[in-house]
Amino acid sequence: MATITIPTALRQYAAGNSSVSLDVETVGALLRGLVEQHPTLGRHLFSEQGKLRNFVNVYVGDEDIRYLEGEATPVSSGDTVSIIPAIAGGI
Amino acid sequence: MSDVNLSNEEIARYSRHLIMPEVGMSGQRKLKQGSVLLIGTGGLGSPLALYLAAAGVGHIGLVDFDVVDSSNLQRQIVHGTSTVGVPKTESAKRRLADLNPLVEVTTYESQISSENALDLMRPYDVIIDGTDNFPTRYLTNDAAVMLGKPNIYGSIFRFEGQATVFYPKEGGPCYRCLYPEPPPPGLVPSCAEGGVLGVLPGVIGTIQATEAIKLLTGIGEPLIGRLMLYDALAMRFRELKLRRNPKCPVCGEHPTVTELIDYDQFCGIFPEVNMLSNQYEITPSELAELLQTAGRPYLLDVRNPYEVAIASISGTDKVIPVDQLPERLSELDTSLEMVVYCRSGARSGRAVELLKSAGFRKVKNLVGGILRWADDVDTSVAKY
Questions:
Q1: What is the pTM of this model?
Q2: What is the rounded distance in angstroms from the CA atom of residue A50 to the CA atom of residue A30?
Q3: Catalytic site includes residue B191
Q4: CATH: 3.40.50.880, 3.10.20.30, 3.60.15.10, 2.30.40.10. Which one for A2-85?
Q5: Which chain A residue is nearest to residue B200, measuring alpha carbons?
């Protein structure tokens, strides 16, 4: 089971859950499994063309999947995948 | 560097720095010679300004166009009850003058823009991004990259914060390497909509201040190429690797953005008049009159339940948080005359756009939201 953590800004679209664990083999399958469970998250993570949005970064451990194999990056049991969205607050 | 000396008064004041070998006389002299520009004198800017002034950074520039509001004081600790209504730059300058009269503080009571950003930043060694919106963050990033200056970034939302140092001149990435594009307006809630735990900017702003002091004195390992994440609820710090993107449009090998652009347009923000025509707007006074009539409109609140618990407009027919609206359209009657409201009119504006696109024709946005309702119609309603 790999675990994906959901950032505060997106938890309201995931029934308040801070993480979801799924038995999958790639980051892409993990993301799509997450959206299956919480459909409202879909438009926040994927564009209408089904591409991962540019302002949503996904990390396996401490590494950006853009510098791994993207959505095809393999995940194994115990891996933590994090969604890091752009946030702008400061005041 | 070494021709700047410390007076006996300064030696007494900074003695706890001077007796540490890592700072010492040479580090303290570097701080005195150093200069920092703080963009934003709010939640992040407050601890930044206080600690940098206390540490003896010789010259601090403060950029902000806002005035102090009582709702700022839950977290903006450089301001106080006595300066509510005073420009934030002036309020902060007064506090810093009391904290450390030996540092020079320059205030710029204006909004940083593509026209003034390079001139504002040029005299300073270190730029610190303590703003609250995407256009200013991209503007600050691009200008700092173009000037070859470090940009100490911090950002907060509710219980979570991020911090890093963008410094392409020293081989690190920039903000655009991390986020090539901003989210479209409305997809990511702002602090005013989402709220923020008051101590959170204290933690993140203090990390930024630490990095500024390290850069100025040249000690330690700077937070370059690493994104520090902080979760206050879990009380957990994490670190992610950031890499420089060789294709980055600003700091990459073949930059395509070589001068400052229109950042509102880049972030998809257009003047509000274009988003809604008057046919789809109603003022609080107009609504108050209509609510007295027999054909009163259906009143829809698109705020979150915890906001409804603070205050509501009496006569509200239904509450559907704006993010649930797409799935709950079937609960509404398309033929009804409807007025939609939220706190300030921003979310309800988006809700009206959504309703229009779903076939609702007689929907109007309450301009200024419940805040303006409290000002114009019912002063007993609490503002938050």
A1: 0.83
A2: 15
A3: yes
A4: 3.10.20.30
A5: A90
